[in-house]
Each structure stands twice: as C-alpha cells, then as structure tokens.
UniProtKB/TrEMBL annotation:
GO MF term list: DNA binding
UniProt cross-references to InterPro entries, sorted A to Z: Restrct_endonuc_typeI_TRD (IPR000055), Restrct_endonuc_typeI_TRD_sf (IPR044946), Type-I_RS_S_subunit (IPR052021)
UniProt similarity note: Belongs to the type-I restriction system S methylase family.
Name assigned to this protein: HsdS
UniProt keyword list: Coiled coil, DNA-binding, Plasmid, Restriction system
PANTHER family: TYPE I RESTRICTION ENZYME MJAVIII SPECIFICITY SUBUNIT, TYPE-1 RESTRICTION ENZYME ECOKI SPECIFICITY PROTEIN
Statement: the UniProt record of this protein carries the keyword DNA-binding: yes
Ranges in a coiled coil: 172-199
Type I restriction modification DNA specificity domain sequence ranges: 26-190, 218-376
BP term (GO), one: DNA restriction-modification system
Upper taxonomic lineage: Bacteria, Bacillati, Bacillota, Bacilli, Lactobacillales
Alphabetical list of Pfam families matching this protein: Methylase_S (PF01420)
Top-level taxon of the source organism: Bacteria
Length: 388
C-alpha cells in the first residue's frame, strides 16, 4: 500500500499531508467537526433504571467501556435516553478525555460520552487528535476533566475530498485489522499458557499433575523454598536508576529500569516485596543486574532449575501472598512467605521438558508482542504523515 503513495516536498507550504496516495493534489479544507458529522451528546438514565440484565439496553457511559478501539458493555438500563447505532463512533468526554472507539452493536449512551456518525477517516483523525493532546487543551475541571459539546462541535479538522478520505480510511482499517490479529494471537497464546500452567503442575495436595509428558510416572517431591535456594533482597535504591545504564535494574514494578552498576551476576528468580505489583511481578534473570532493596531474589538452586522454580513460583505465589499479607497501606512480602512456601517438583528431566514448553510459549508471545509494538509504531508514524 505504501508504494502507491507519494511524499510531498516539505518546502511546499500547502494544507496537504506529508504523505498521500498518488493522484491526489488538492489542498485539504479546514472544517468544524460539527459541520462534517452528526454529534449526539449522551445523557445518563435515571438511577432507578440501571439493571444488570443483559437483555435490557446496553449502556455506554465512559472511556472504561472502550478496549482496543471497540466499545464493550458493562452496564445495562431499561430507559432509552440517547441511542447510537452499530459502528457509530463513541468519544469519551470525561477523563481521560478524547478516547475514541466504535460500537459493535446498538447502545444507549450516557453522560460520559458522545456518539458521532463518522466514516473511517473521521475515526482515525479523532484518534490522532487524542494522541496529539488536542482535547486536553479544551478540557475543564480540576478534579474531573471533561469537554463540552460546543468544543467538540467546533473542533477544527482538515479534510480532503471524499475519495481520498475513503482511501486513507481503508488503509488504516486494514492496518488496525492486522494489529487486532496480532493482539488476538497474543491473547490466545496467553490463554493457552494459562491452561498449561493449571494442568501441568499438581493441584493442592496432589503428587502428580493432571497433564504431563509421556514416559513420566513417578510422584513429584515436595520441599520448602528455603531448602531449594537461597533467598535475600537487593541493596539498590531508586536513585540508582539511569536512563541509558548498561545493566537491568529490577525495581518494585513490572518496568525494568537501567543502572550504571550491577550488584549480582547470577541466575535468579525475582519478585517485588511491596507495592501494587506484590505477588504479580516476577522476573527470571541470568547475568549481571542491579536490584532494589525491596525486591526479593532466589538463587543458588539445588534439585530444581531456576527456570522451573520461576514458572512454579510465579503461578502459585500470588495466592499465598493474598492469604498471608499484612494488610497495611500496601500489600507486602515477608521473608517467611517465600522461605516456607511448598514447592513440588519432578525429576530433572521432566523439569527440563516443562521448562522447554513454557519457554517456547514465552518466546512466541514475545515475538508477536514485538510485531504488535512495531505495527503500532508504524501506525503512529503514518497518522503523523498522512493527516494535516
């Protein structure tokens, strides 16, 4: 598709995009959004008309109902106030303002959104306006941001002839479909991995898993974590973070930072000790790394491999944390939560088979994630170059 486009000379100061399809040379015109499309502001139903019956009308009332460019149902109502039809555009008018999605069905729209009758070109244009921060400039309210109907209707957009709109819309729709395909593949692989994790490790009290590789029949062994590895925390502090550091720096979140120095050079399993990621964030590392003082490391394994421990531990530790955590201001991990946790494991050979299966799944998921990230970056670049 890109091959059918032509790049515009930057020296030509016209209202035209940097990149456009061949055959189109006319300047784009600036219009008010309200003059180009029909806009309907939502109106919330009366409180007594909310229901949880999916046979009633689907109510969309905010950006939380949007996911991956589609609008999902969360609430239902018996009262029809404002309606939008299948494939209408839904714009969030409350914080974070400007999120845009499409309905997959007829819906009732609440006070938090506006329904727009627009084509694919308008949909993509609104998405670019959101990413450019257009709506933030017009939002009001210190505690609860919102944009009003006048600012929406009078928003200035640049538009070409309808034929060029159609070409641009088709291009981005195909790109979105490819992005959605990769996202579905990732979601499917993650569900597949989740299923294997449930079936390939023994359930509480069991000595063998529901599903295992052929040729293995022996009962699995049970030990406490402290019998299988050494456990400690790191020594690093938040100020050790450096944007372009040479070594990974594991902190109290899923984000892996960088550091100019490393504390350890080893194979280890890591988990955060407190904060919102408690019981949810795990890392397997093999090499040089820095470690925050509130992140736990398990290393020097015996009888189990580090990778096997990583898969078993990351599957089972969250439930243990939630049952034992000291509910103060945040969830936290105490040493005994890890040290006294029961770990069940098979022979070394069966461990190797299990690790290979999950490593292959992780690698495939990571591959699709990289492709997905690249496609999103490509779309971001095209949006900047193909719109005025």
């Amino acid at each position: 598709m890109v091959g059918t486009m032509a790049k515009i000379d930057d020296s030509v100061k016209k209202k035209v995009p940097e990149l456009r399809f061949k055959g189109f040379t006319d300047e784009w015109e600036q219009r008010k959004l309200g003059d180009e499309v029909r806009i309907v502001m939502g109106q919330s139903p009366n409180s007594e008309n909310y229901t949880d019956d999916p046979n009633d009308y689907i109510l969309v009332q905010g950006n939380a109902d949007m996911k991956n460019g589609r609008v999902l149902p969360r609430v239902w109502t018996t009262q029809v106030t404002k309606q939008a039809e299948k494939d209408d555009l839904i714009l969030s008018v409350r914080a974070p303002v400007g999120d845009i999605g499409k309905t997959a069905y007829d819906v009732v729209i609440g006070r938090g959104v506006a329904a727009i009758k627009g084509n694919e070109f308008i949909f993509q244009n609104l998405g670019k306006m959101k990413s450019d921060g257009y709506w933030t400039r017009y939002s009001t309210g210190s505690t609860f941001e919102s944009i009003n109907s006048t600012d929406i209707k009078e928003a200035i957009i640049s538009v070409p002839a309808i034929e060029e709109q159609d070409k641009i819309g088709s291009f981005f729709k195909q790109l979105d479909n490819t992005i959605a395909l990769h996202q579905r593949k990732i979601d499917l692989l993650k569900e597949q991995k989740k299923g294997y994790l449930q079936k390939m490790f023994p359930k509480n009290g069991a000595k063998v898993p529901e599903l295992r590789f052929e040729g293995f029949a022996d009962d699995w062994e049970l030990r406490k974590s402290k019998e299988l590895c050494t456990i400690s925390t790191g020594k690093g502090n938040t100020q050790d973070k450096v944007d372009d550091g040479a070594y990974p720096f594991y902190v109290r979140s899923a984000t892996i930072e960088k550091s100019d120095e490393y504390l350890y050079d080893q194979e280890a399993v890591l988990t955060v000790g407190d904060g919102v990621g408690t019981g949810k964030v795990y890392h397997y590392v093999n090499g040089k790394y820095n470690l925050h003082q509130r992140v736990y490391r398990m290393y020097d394994f015996k009888d189990v491999s580090a990778k096997y421990f990583y898969y078993y531990f990351s599957k089972n530790f969250y439930k243990r944390v939630m049952s034992m955590t000291a509910k103060t201001s945040v969830d936290s991990v105490r040493m005994e939560m890890i040290a006294d946790m029961n770990i069940v494991f098979p022979s070394v050979k069966e461990q190797e088979n299990i690790v290979e299966l999950f490593s292959n799944l992780d690698n495939t998921i990571a591959l699709h994630q990289r492709k997905l990230d690249l496609l999103k970056e490509q779309k971001k670049g095209f949006l900047q170059k193909m719109f005025v």
